[in-house]
Amino acid sequence: MRHKTFLAFFAPTAIAMLLFIALPIISVIIQSVHTPHDQVFRIVENCGPFGCKEETTIDQDASAALKEAAPLGKFVGLDIYFDRGHLAISEVVQAWRESATFGEFRKKLGNLPFYRAMAFTLTYTFTVTPMLIILGFAIAIGANSLNKYLKGFVIFFSLLPMIVTPLIGSLILFWMIDSRGIIGTFIQWAAGDPDLSLKASTGLTWVMLIVYGIWSSAPFAFVVFYAGLQTLPSETLEAARIDGASRWQQIKYVTIPHLMPLVTFVALIQIMDNFRVFEPIVGFNAEAHATSLSWIIFNDLSGETQLLASAATTSVLTIICVAILLSPVLVRTWRDFNQKA
Amino acid sequence: MVEVKSNLTADHQKINLAGMQGTPAEYTAAIVANSSIVALINEDVIRPLDDLVAKHGADLKKNQLITVDGKVMAVAFMANAQHLVARSDILEQIGVEAPTTYEEMLAAAKMIREQGILENPISGSYKAGWNLAQEFNNMYIGHGGEFFKPGTAEVSVNNEAGVAALEMMKALSEYMNPDFLTHDSNAAGAEWKAGNAALMNMWGSRAGAWNAEDGFPQDILDATMLGGPLTVGGGETPATTLWWDGWTVAKNISDEDAEATFIAMKNGISPAILDETTSKEAVWLIDGYEPTPAAAGVFATAASGAVPYPMLPYQGLLHTALGAELSDFMQGKESAEQALTDVEAAYTAAAKESGFLK
């Protein structure tokens, strides 16, 4: 009976997970190990408004039978995973052999699309996540101590960055930080350098994207922590106050331990979110300075010739990377769970 | 009864292939250019139009018909090219003629900056990605470069012409707004509109559309002159490419739908759409079109011996590789040779994956 009830409750979730999570992942894995068949070329004459020209085209008839027999394409195993656009195994080995110093090796690595994207993505994830947790926590503590008339306003305005669509938010900021925009001009004035341009410098572009990331995600942490603060046991706080704890000590010894499970939750969600950073890169036109795995997938699919296998491979690599990043948090949660049980 | 629906999206390049791959196709027609038609031919999703042209297209001009191997695959309605756009008032002020080469453009830019007229006199669509790659294509063609080893999909841009093309782009960028790697043709147009630039290599379609744009400052519009294409490095072929825009009809639809689509699209480009306003907005290939001054640049380009953008199955992959790998050089982070080595490696990986190279 108990099993039956459990199944009845769990079945819809299981079916949804199978359909919307497991199947797409399997599909992406299958696509990542298949590429289009070898193309057969034919020289033809093309004519248009500007005259005629001999050009190469694909002979569709020649490969029609092949496509019919294997519609998925050619099986290539892990070839795409190891090519230059992804893990670039042979390029990395070569760079390692030819580099005298580690710095040189790192520079060569930064020239390969996957590692260049990883360098930015990891920097972004590991600066934005802790900073937004700290900022969100600070806003929550601040908002919680306001009187009830001000509270509503402050909460509403603190949530605004989350309400703005990321792409729109980054586009608005993109024009504000332009060297002729309001923030760009202010920074030039503050730095005393009329030629300073945020968009022309890789370092400043990274800072800008990170600041944007914190700004847009802090409200999420704020909402979660603010909700957590409402369940703070007043007895414990009162006891701490009677014992002569200062406000800072109350936060450190009562509030933070109480909110710790929520910090884990926010960190988990935000690491996943920040690892697939995408909209700000597009919104800020920042691809000359910063790329991410999601941006690589977008780039593979938005060219005139779409690279489906390449995009699928990057998707699988993203899933693997997210799993690796989350493993410490997941292990910890699992251990806590077992201790309680 | 047939209902015509259109999806006017800037992302049409991303959806027209997927939109035509279904059976039946979601879109029965797609607007393409000489670069983007290749993706549709590669995947064999558009149909030859010879029978429909014979039945309904008696009034189409011969040069509107895009043929591949003798079969009509698209009907073109407008021509486009990048060419010189200059501020005649500023050129007059420094006392030089409109440049005809990139070297002259650099010299003029130097004078404009030195005389304190404009800090960054050159503009252009140099945004990392498609735009930057297109500027390289122009400059490489202008230096007499060939993108591929003849008759193969093997890339060859890491050569003298490639390095010279990049060096010229770098030299031009010294006179551009420092944010140039984020400027597409919209942003370059905005720079122009604001009076911040005096020289650029710009799309004729964009410069033509300024005539109809609300709020475009009249004094800047009056001083804007459309010149021919520029040559570079003493080359004879202009450093630009010729483009057509046209429409195609999907393969995976019934013959009746194809016929209805053909008639609807042909009505869309009928001579009746031409009036005083629309005539100025583009260089139409439509019968009865009288060239306006807005077409001067594209006509000069077509007359100058410029070549069309290549219709090769693998040109798009090279374009993407160029767009991703050239920005490090433009920022001074690596040498021209290294950037071109990266381009070749990125292209080769993509071409192998797509079955163009073994």
Features:
heterodimer; A: 341 residues; mainly alpha; MetI-like fold; two-stranded antiparallel sheet; 15 helices; globular; B: 358 residues; alpha+beta; D-Maltodextrin-Binding Protein, domain 2; 9-stranded mixed β-sheet; 16 helices; 42% helix
Structure description:
- The complex is a heterodimer of chains A (341) and B (358).
- Chain A contains 15 helices and four strands.
- The model of chain A has no long low-confidence stretch (mean pLDDT 91).
- Chain A has a two-stranded antiparallel sheet with strand order 1-4. A two-stranded antiparallel ribbon of chain A has the order 2-3.
- Chain A has two domains: 79-111, no CATH class; 112-340, MetI-like fold (Orthogonal Bundle), CATH 1.10.3720.
- In chain A, a hairpin with a 2-residue loop joins strand 2 (41-48) and strand 3.
- In chain A, helix 6 packs parallel to helix 10 and helix 12 runs antiparallel to helix 15.
- Chain A has helices spanning 2-32, 60-69, 79-82, 89-98, 102-109, 113-144, 148-163, 166-176, 182-191, 202-229, 234-242, 247-275, 279-283, 293-302, 308-340, and strands spanning 34-35, 41-48, 51-58, 74-75.
- Chain A is mainly α.
- Chain B has two domains: 12-79 and 241-308, Periplasmic binding protein-like II (D-Maltodextrin-Binding Protein, domain 2), CATH 3.40.190.10; 80-226, D-Maltodextrin-Binding Protein, domain 2, CATH 3.40.190.10.
- Chain B contains 16 helices and nine strands.
- In chain B, strands 1, 2, 3, 4, 5, 6, 7, 8 and 9 form a nine-stranded mixed beta sheet that branches.
- The N and C termini of chain B lie far apart (50 Å).
- The mean pLDDT of chain B is 92.
- The interface between A and B is large, with 54 and 69 residues.
- Strand 2 of chain A pairs antiparallel with strand 2 of chain B.
